[in-house]
Amino acid sequence: xxxPEQINAVAEAVSKTGARILRAGAFKPRTSPYAFQGLGEKxxxxxxxxxxxxxxFVVSExxxxxxxxxxxQYVDIFQVGARxxxxxxxxxxxxxxxxxxxxxxxxSATIEELLLSAEYILSGGNYNVIxxxxxxxxxxxxxxxxxxxxxxxxxxxxxxxxxxxxxxxGTGRRDKVPPMARAAVAAGADGLLIEVHNDPDHALxxxxxxxxxxxxxxxxxxxxxxxxxxxxxxx
Length: 235
Ligand code: PEP
Ligand code: MN
What we know:
Number of strands: 7
Helix content: 25-40%
CATH superfamily: Aldolase class I
Bound molecules: phosphoenolpyruvate, manganese (II) ion
Number of helices: 9
CATH architecture: Alpha-Beta Barrel
Largest sheet: 7 strands, parallel
Distance between the termini: 26 Å
Strand order of the largest sheet: 1-2-3-4-5-6-7
Radius of gyration: 17 Å
CATH class: Alpha Beta
Strand content: 5-15%
Structural class: alpha/beta
Number of domains: 1
């Protein structure tokens, strides 16, 4: 989603099928410094405009505490990415604001480390933390990461915080996203983070794991069947 037209098209499509929050990165923590780094503040403006048009909330990744004030003008939820899960200065700063924080599990972090990172935010007085299982590094290399579905019931037992799953980064492969999304909901996830792009083969980031709007709509239909089986409802 790099052009205003693309951002609008995706916002419109996902809002129609029941998504509530538009997540797009304006500051991208790319593994290579030579890869597309995001559109910066201009990108945040585009995301905000598209979200307002289709009555969606905005979540976007904050990479450094110097960005918090500026980003606060555009986002409803701050995302802390896997690579920053143990950036304790950033976590403490986010503990001093009142906007919700989506805290992603580090790629080699244990569940306990994730919960302790959340404590950095909570202990500052910001109780609005959403945890995210986004896959971890294991000996298995077939997929991008190993989505730790078991972390969902474990966290449900250990913490009162909501836990969402990200099968997009958790698998890295478009065709593996729907089955793992369904499994995450069946396991008790409170939400899903799904990457959608209207032209994934030409996406500047993570195209291989992005669903098309049509695939996303199909997945939502399936999730609406699974959710009630485990006592959940999708409004
Ligand atoms: C993202 O959500 O776009 C992202 C970079 O994810 P992660 O931090 O989980 O790698
Ligand atoms: Mn991504």
